[in-house]
Amino acid sequence: MNRLADIESGAGPFPTVKNAVDGASKGASETMPAEVLAAWEKLQEVATELRSVIRGKDDVVELVLTALLAEGSILLEDVPGVGKTTLAKSVALLIDMEYQRIQCTPDLLPGDILGGSIYRPAVGEFEFRPGPVFCNLLVADEINRASPRTQSALLEAMAETQVTIEGQRYDLKHPFIVIATQNPAGFEGTFPLPESQLDRFLFRLKMDYPDPVSEVDLLVEQSEHEPVRDLKAVMHVDELEILQRWTRSIRVDRKVASYIVALATATRHDGRLRVGCSPRGCKMLLRAAQAHAGLSGRDYVLPDDVQHLATATLGHRVSSRHASHAMDETGQVIASIVSQTEIPLGG
């Protein structure tokens, strides 16, 4: 018997995500240490401000904040003009993080991202000049317009929070998060991201067009000024780190971990997929579920957290037999697997 119906109705061993979110403020005040609660309330302010700028995209805002708590990088993919860069810029402004932005083009070099040594004739020696990667939040606009060689320059940074330049290892700031935007494959002048780099992103999200009402609101409100210009920091990076540490301690029942493995196993045996979810993918889904629980004000993970995040976390970590990086196709396969996979009862 599929246990999803029991969980959704509240009859199973876990409460529902919806109920937990509805009572988030009350639950958070009862379970969080004081400094965590203060930081969590600031994050709710960040969410409110983001929703005021990115109209009709509450689901995307939620996932972006979840990724921040999980210390994960985000790939925003869609056609030009739907708000990808605006969202990334707004996050950088609302959280008082040191950030840099790079516009990716075919002639962008690895050194333009990482930095390098510059000879100073006055002192007769080389001096290291750090590149934009030395920040808390790196916004990489149109990352798939950069050459594969330049794209790979970010790989070590995203995987290990460090870079190697001219044989010397340099640690990056903590936290270090990349928000990259890209246009769909097939657009002129784009280079598909390699699978090894796609795997470094916690989520791949699609912005999509706003609904008609939200688009009208957007036009009316932005006819006189850009809302992004009015944004001010409401949260400090130290407060974000407090929340990140707290989310790592959020409880994960063995049943939930078993459910994640069951989903991954299903992807590995699904005939529609060429490559299934790796153990790293399982780890990332678990980490994302902890962060989503924390964003909801809970100190425990629900199976619904896993269901809610499965497509965004696993969709770019599996490959379709028909189109390796077809975002919609792999997402549909993951959604199908989620709907058909039972929640294990063993503990």
Report on the structure:
The structure is a single chain. The protein has 347 residues and is α/β, with parallel strands linked by helices. It has a domain at 1-31 and 250-347: Orthogonal Bundle (Helicase, Ruva Protein, domain 3). Helices cover 47% and strands 16% of the residues. The protein is built from 16 helices and 13 strands. The protein has helices at residues 4-9, 17-22, 24-31, 34-53, 58-69, 84-94, 110-114, 148-151, 153-160, 195-198, 212-221, 237-248, 254-268, 279-295, 303-314, 327-340; strands at residues 73-77, 95-96, 99-103, 115-120, 125-130, 137-141, 162-165, 168-171, 177-182, 201-206, 235-236, 273-275, 319-320. The strands form five sheets. It has a five-stranded parallel beta sheet. β4 (115-120) and β5 (125-130) form a beta hairpin. α5 (58-69) packs across α14 (279-295). The radius of gyration is 21 Å and the shape is globular. The model is unreliable at 1-23 (pLDDT under 50). InterPro entries: ATPase_AAA-3 (IPR011703), CbbQ/NirQ/NorQ/GpvN (IPR050764), ChlI/MoxR_AAA_lid (IPR041628), P-loop_NTPase (IPR027417). Residues 266-334 form the ChlI/MoxR AAA lid domain. Residues 74-203 form the ATPase AAA-3 domain.
